[in-house]
C-alpha cells in the first residue's frame, strides 16, 4: 500500500468512530495515581522529552518503544492504541478531548485547554546545553542527509559556528522554556504557569526524577535514553558567554524554579 493510500485509509478509519469509541472506553476505565485520568507532557525540545514518552510507551507491554513512537508519528491522527493504553501526540483536538492514557505535544501552555483531571509534566534543562544540543542535532541531520520535517527551515539557522546559530535562531525557540509558558516572554508568568503543573523536573537529574514521578503516579516507569547524537562539535568560551547572555531570561526562569522546588525535581 502506498503512503497516500495508507494515510487515506487511516483517516477513514479514524472518522468512522470505531477507534474513537475504543479510546473513550479505555480512557473511562483509566485511573492513574488514584486521582488522574491521563498524563500530559509539555514537550520542550531537547529536554529529554522523547525519552520520557518512550518510558510511558513501554508501559503498554511492548519493549520496542522506538518502533511504537514511529508508529504513532506515522498515524494520520497521531493516536496509537497498544496494550490496552491510548497514546496521543501533537493532535490538539484529541489532546483536549482527553481520551488517552498519555499525551504530549509542543503546543504552548496558553494555546491548549486540557481536561481538569490531567496530570501535567514539564521537563527542563540547562538552557545553554539545550540550545547547543539543538545546534548539534540540526548539524547532524544536515551532515548525514537525514530527512526530517524541521530540517528545511532550521538548517537556515546554521552558519559557521554556534555563535552564528545563536544569532539566527528565532527568539521563540531560543527562549523556549519561557515562550512555552508565557506568550509575552515573561519569566515571572512562565514560572507561575509551570508551578501550576503537576510535576516538573530537570533532565540533568532524570533518574531520581523519573523514580519520583513513578512513585507519584504509582506506575512502573523507568528512565530511558532515546537519542544521543554522534556528532562532536566545539563550543568556545566566548560562545558560551554569548549564549548565557542571550538566554538571560531563560536562566532567570530556571533559577526561580530551582528556588521554588528546593530540589532538582518537584511537583505540586
Order of helices and strands: HHEHHEEHEEHHHHHHEHHHE
Low-pLDDT residue spans? 1-15, 262-268
Q: Could you give a short account of the major beta sheet?
A: 7 strands, mixed
Structural class: alpha/beta
Gross morphology:
globular
- On the 0-100 scale, what is the average pLDDT? 90
Radius of gyration: 19 Å
Distance between the termini: 48 Å
Task: Please give the oligomerization state of what you see.
Answer: single chain
Separate helix tally:
14
The total beta strand count reads 7
Percent helix among the residues? 40-55%
| The number of domains | 2
Which band does the percent of strand residues land in?
5-15%
Strand order of the largest sheet: 2-3-4-1-5-6-7
List the helices and strands and how they pair.
Blueprint: H1 3-15, H2 18-28, E1 38-42, H3 49-57, H4 65-74, E2 79-82, E3 85-89, H5 92-97, E4 102-105, E5 118-124, H6 127-143, H7 151-154, H8 162-168, H9 171-174, H10 176-179, H11 187-195, E6 199-202, H12 206-217, H13 237-246, H14 248-261, E7 265-267
Amino acid at each position: 500500500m502506498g503512503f497516500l493510500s495508507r494515510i487515506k485509509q487511516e483517516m477513514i478509519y479514524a472518522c468512522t468512530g470505531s477507534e474513537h469509541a475504543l479510546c473513550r472506553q479505555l480512557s473511562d476505565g483509566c485511573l492513574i495515581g488514584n486521582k488522574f485520568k491521563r498524563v500530559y507532557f509539555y514537550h520542550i525540545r531537547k529536554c529529554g522529552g522523547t525519552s520520557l514518552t518512550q518510558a510511558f510507551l513501554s508501559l503498554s507491554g511492548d519493549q520496542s518503544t522506538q518502533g511504537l513512537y514511529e508508529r504513532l508519528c506515522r498515524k494520520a491522527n497521531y493516536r496509537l492504541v497498544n496494550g490496552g493504553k491510548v497514546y496521543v501526540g501533537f493532535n490538539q483536538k484529541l489532546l483536549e478531548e482527553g481520551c488517552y492514557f498519555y499525551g504530549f505535544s509542543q503546543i504552548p501552555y496558553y494555546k491548549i485547554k486540557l481536561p481538569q483531571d490531567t496530570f501535567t509534566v514539564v521537563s527542563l534543562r540547562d538552557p545553554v546545553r539545550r540550545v547547543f544540543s539543538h545546534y548539534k542535532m540540526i548539524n547532524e541531520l544536515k551532515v548525514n542527509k537525514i530527512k526530517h520535517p524541521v530540517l528545511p527551515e532550521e538548517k537556515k539557522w546554521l552558519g559557521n559556528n554556534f555563535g552564528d546559530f545563536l544569532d539566527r535562531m528565532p527568539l521563540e525557540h531560543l527562549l523556549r522554556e519561557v515562550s512555552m509558558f508565557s506568550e509575552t516572554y515573561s519569566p515571572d508568568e512562565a514560572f507561575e504557569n509551570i508551578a501550576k503543573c503537576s510535576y516538573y523536573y530537570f533532565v540533568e537529574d532524570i533518574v531520581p526524577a523519573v523514580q519520583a514521578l513513578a512513585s507519584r503516579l504509582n506506575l512502573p516507569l523507568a528512565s530511558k535514553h532515546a537519542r544521543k547524537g554522534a556528532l562532536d562539535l566545539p563550543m568556545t568560551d566566548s560562545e558560551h558567554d554569548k549564549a548565557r547572555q542571550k538566554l538571560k531570561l531563560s536562566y532567570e526562569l530556571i533559577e526561580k524554579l530551582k528556588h521554588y522546588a528546593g530540589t532538582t525535581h518537584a511537583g505540586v
